[in-house]
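We include the entry.

. . .
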Amino acid sequence: MERDTQVIEFEDRVVHINRCAKVVKGGRRFSFSALVVVGNKNGKIGYGLGKAKEVAEAIRKGTEAAHRNLTEVSLLDETIPHDIEVKFGATRLLLMPAAPGTGVIAGAAARAVLELAGVRNILTKVHGSSNPSTVVKACIEGLTSQKNKQDYAALRGVNA
């Protein structure tokens, strides 16, 4: 019972659907993979990849996988605490905090992650590979590696 109420508060978004064809004697056999991002728009975010013979089943599997690997993100006034450049594979992602009213200026994959994490004002730029899978992973890695004032104060052993 408790798990169902927890799942309802999360919103999910399909970032990318990939169709793969296997050529066999009778023709082509298609399979699908779906990259899904889930978040509660309040600092919790996760992603998952689901693979199946039908699109709906791939999305369902991706959503379940995303719920299994949720992570916490620290935010500061609906933006991020500081600039960060993340390298994941061939993707380089630059995340910069923005003033209130700026909005989310990002591509489709990064936008899905940032909006579901609860970020309202941010500037992003993707350099290198714009593969949605690596952009989503880089974005989540960048958000989780952010540190706010309290984190740095705790590391130094002083009061913030």
Residues 74-153 form a domain with the Ribosomal Protein S5; domain 2 fold (CATH 3.30.230.10). The beta strands are 11-24, 27-39, 44-52, 71-72, 84-88, 91-97, 104-105, 122-128. The mean pLDDT is 90. The CA atoms of residues 48 and 65 lie 5 Å apart.
